[in-house]
Design brief:
Two copies of one chain form a homodimer. Chain A is α/β, with parallel strands linked by helices and 615 residues long. In chain A, 30% of the residues lie in helices and 24% in strands. In chain A, helix 15 links the parallel strand 24 (527-532) and strand 25 (557-561).
Chain lengths: 615, 615
């Protein structure tokens, strides 16, 4: 006997033989159902609604509440095809989504368990025999669908005030939006298909946002802006000082950040052709100062010793209070902080690369305006922050720019000077990756000495290099410079090299101090992860040649991209990983580099580039 | 050996012999310590801090967390005087306060377990070796004092934003104010002595507030206002209609209510010479419509069948959001509702008289603009609401007034007409009690017939009454009237009698329907409690004579005053009773009188006064 099983809402049909479990069939149909226990019937995560519902087995009678059993819910690993065609509805909470490729260069598989759930409800209108209030009517139905006791569900006064109109205007047919145990929104009709979240990397220089479909974990769009707070100061300290000097400074910083986030959200919604009203949750990962300023927390104490913030724990506040135009009952969470100088972006990064859970001893270096350095494994982590400045982000560089189309990002010096630009667009400038690669190449061919000085004309004459290369090194009104693109005049100047030296020295010294503190040798590192908003892949050989990273084997180095954004995405999509992120600060010892007496010596030592001889 | 034990913060000294427990000594010193288990060491409620701390016994080692043991906390029932003088600090949460006389006419003893706790903390300022943020620093100390794990304590964004300044301006010496597990306020210095709450009876016609010292349960002041919403309509329905017709109507009603509450709070604070900033919690008990309007919930559905409200559960919102000027991080709770017509005032009343817990079968009649009727015992309750109109509150009565100084409240007709006024002030009018008593007396002496009509002159001539009484019944431009005070002309008019008849008929018919529903006879009632904002004691005989109450024995009747306010006070002072109040709606069946086919017949029948012949 050949039977048919139809999976909803995908409407995927599959032929089935009696005796097969729904879980097996779902796997054949390429539908991922959560089964943490591997289908042994012990985790209860694989609930599906079957029509007609087969008789419940002993494990199902034990694990599924009576009300849900009556509604036709069964465990996919226990329920079997018998003698009839079946329809199987797979609820969002029973789905397993593959979150691979969320972190570039690393592969992780995570189950999507968002805090958000949407249920379409057709409520019975009130009658004299049923004196339940509007809220109770909705609550009882929504709690039933969510598998909660009615008393467990919460609601706020704003939503209560709108509830009677929402119910009556929609003939009591509404979609309830739950965030954990809180009803956060009620919408007319069935809007269950639209459930979105936005993850942000709130950087000192750049802000990047990713729009995610919370049901499928799909990334629908990515957009970015320059942090508008930069108009008040490129670095964190000058922004904090403004909040101390100007009574409205804190408010201005807060508004600047939330306006930029708002613009990005609007752009994301526009590009994905969705309504921002259906964005219910926003996760923001930023460094400690950026999160303080965004939350409107006084940041003054971050700027003076002992550099203590107001609050390290994750903060949740309503989208309304955060000034974001998403669903008016939506909410925003920030990633927890480790210290005044190691913030939520680092916590997100640790989460993204799983540093706190793997056995291998690894080093994560996240290069933004500050360079955060974390080393360790599941037995413990140590971290530090080095003030790198914005050179790696292309800022404070003569022809520097963000990693956007037209930025030179790859450079190779052979018998001539070759380069590529992002998106192969016409040359507009040079990004952090391009600067790093240029300097690495200049060092390799000898146009730049180990002390970071461009060769003068007499030294140049002694070098065995093609004229096509030599002639690029010229004196300009802006000082000696190496021309990458003679047409536009885009070049790397002597002072750009100095900026890069300062930046890489800070990070290299920080790494060395941290390893010393942990009594580790460079050779103990099993993997070195290079993260940051460089915008594109960095050649490990180049990172080694300029001395940004300690002398490990090049194959040990992996470029993992924007881990702050990747971690924020994970916190958005998975309740479990959000909880894990909250534990990371307590696993992580903090080393204050400026209190280390060797730090300045090491910093000066690291200003020079490593002596040539490396591949 | 004679030793000395000093109890703090009272500084009460008592002589002690070795071997006596601290609990025994406290009793001798007239300090009430909570000991639910009667001193057997099983409840753990009697924690005190002893200096020097005696060795902990086995029960103490088992029940007291190690951190508190280390701080010197012991169980008062276990710790004994040994060979040294002791100082014993009795924390608020270990105290038992006597809440007798909170309900007039009834005596209850309740332990004060407020949700509020204040702790004075001297925090260590941040140093580089202690990277805890401001919030963690405060949280760890406050949680320690409250016996909570640090992670259990919550805080909101508003307080976080002010925290750094609060801590630094006060050299890290602050008082933390906790409501359950939430830090709601931080104050400079030691303000632990000032902890207040306000309980409100939010009536359709009158609002009464009581200021309570949350540490001692003492009532510091009482104040009232006419509900300013009355300027939009005396009854609930016309106010609800305004919110439907006028787009700003809901907002105006809400502001009117919160302004009145605010004025009362200011007056209370003024009279008790305290700062309203130290009021952290407000409990509001009102009928369903009043609570809806105060909370800004749309009340329209309360005015049309099936009379369903937005939310019956208790609502908690910030004082800021409720528009009340108390501590800016304080909060307001409303009493839960039973139905669209039986509200939080009735729940508070049931709680105040303990109707839901006693074995005796009792009837509670709360007379305001609506008359709420509840009958039952600990096995179950039934309730109904009868539209009485405001006659019992002195409104819509020719010379009617609130129960304020100058209102005639007691009337007796002998060989002449005798009366008294509230506060023995010069006559200004007549209150509900006065009207009820006048009508009762007029019925007794025969000046009023059982059908409610004043005797005409020819009937009057046939009555054997002193001329001094007879001559008071006169025709006036306002109709026939009985003059109480010839000097001021204050009188009871024929139409006032009609108002009283309508009011008492509604209630009497309601009581009869309710008893029928419960298959009860009048004689089954073991106690009849008459509550309401009459303002002063009502003579049970008078209530029986006008037929307001069913014909029970007069000694069965007790006047219990404003039970709505009394219940609100209990919800404020005791977490346990607040929780109990939340369960009351689920214990209480609701009878919709207008759906009972006998109700109108009975109402008409009850318009007449009982035939004379009663004492």
């Amino acid at each position: 006997m050949k039977l048919k099983v139809t999976f909803r809402p995908e409407n995927v049909e599959i032929a089935a033989l009696p005796g097969l479990t729904i879980l097996e069939l779902a796997r054949r149909a390429n539908l991922a159902i959560s089964a943490v226990c591997g289908g042994r019937g012990t985790c209860g995560k694989c609930l599906v609604r079957i029509n007609p519902a087969p008789p419940a087995g002993p494990l199902e009678l034990k694990r599924i509440p009576a009300a849900r059993l009556a509604e036709g819910y069964r465990m996919a690993c226990q329920a079997r095809v018998t003698d009839r065609d079946l329809e199987v509805e797979v609820p969002d909470e029973s789905r397993l989504f593959n979150l691979k490729v969320l972190v570039s260069g690393l592969s992780r598989e995570v189950a999507v368990h968002s805090t958000l759930r949407k249920y379409y409800l057709e409520l019975a209108p009130p009658v004299i025999e049923d004196q339940r209030s509007d809220w109770e009517r909705l609550r009882d139905a929504a709690a039933g669908r969510a598998g909660l006791r009615p008393a467990e569900l919460e609601v706020g006064i704003y939503l209560l005030r709108r509830l009677p109109v929402l119910l009556r205007e929609n003939n009591f047919k509404v979609t309830a939006v739950l965030a954990n145990r809180r009803l956060i929104s009620v919408e007319g009709g069935d809007t269950t298909e639209h459930c979105y979240g936005v993850a942000f990397d709130l950087g000192t220089t750049s802000i990047v946002g990713a729009l995610l479909d919370m049901r499928t974990a799909r990334e629908l769009a990515v957009a970015h802006r320059t942090n508008p707070q930069t108009s008040y100061g490129a670095d964190v300290i000058s922004r904090i000082n403004l909040t101390l000097q100007d009574p409205d400074g804190g408010q201005r910083m807060r508004t600047a950040a939330s306006d930029a986030l708002g613009e990005i959200i609007a752009e994301l919604a526009d590009r994905a052709a969705i309504s921002a009203h259906h964005v219910y949750e926003v996760v923001v990962a930023g460094n400690s100062a950026m999160e303080h300023l965004f939350l409107g927390l006084p940041a003054g104490s971050l700027a003076t010793s002992p550099y203590i913030g107001v609050c390290r724990g994750p903060v949740t506040l309503s989208a309304r209070r955060a000034g974001l135009r998403v669903n008016e009952d939506g909410f925003v969470r920030t990633a927890p902080l480790i210290s005044g100088f190691v913030g939520g972006d680092t916590v997100a990064g640790i989460l993204a690369v799983n540093l706190h859970r793997e056995e291998r001893l690894r080093l994560l270096v996240d290069i933004g305006t500050n360079g955060e350095i974390v080393a360790g494994n599941r037995e413990g982590l140590f971290c530090a922050s080095a003030a790198a400045g914005p050179a790696f982000e292309g800022a404070n560089i003569h022809n520097g720019m963000r990693a956007e189309p037209g930025a030179i990002d790859k450079v190779r010096i052979t018998d001539r000077v070759e380069y590529s630009t992002i998106a192969e667009a016409p040359v507009r400038g040079i990004c952090g990756t391009g600067l790093l690669e240029t300097v690495s190449e200049l060092l390799r061919v000898g146009l730049l000495g180990p002390e970071g000085r461009f060769r003068n004309d007499s030294e140049l004459a002694g070098l065995e290099l093609p004229a096509a290369v030599k002639e690029r090194l010229v004196d300009t009104p802006g000082g000696r410079a190496f021309r990458l693109d003679p047409e536009t005049g885009v070049a790397v100047y002597q002072k750009d090299v100095r900026q890069l030296q300062l930046a890489k020295a800070a990070i290299a010294a920080g790494i060395e101090i941290l390893l010393e503190k942990m009594s580790l040798e460079t050779s103990d590192l099993e993997e070195v992860l290079l993260a940051g908003a460089f915008g594109s892949y960095i050649d490990p050989a180049a990172a080694l040649r300029i001395g940004l990273l300690p002398p490990v084997r090049p194959e040990t180095i992996r470029f993992v991209g924007n881990t702050s954004l990747a971690g924020a995405r994970l916190m958005l999509l998975s309740t479990e990983l959000k909880d894990e992120a909250e534990c990371i600060p307590s696993l992580c010892g903090y080393v204050e580099l400026f209190h280390e007496k060797d730090f300045m010596d090491l910093f000066v030592e690291k200003l020079a580039f490593p002596t040539p001889g490396l591949p």
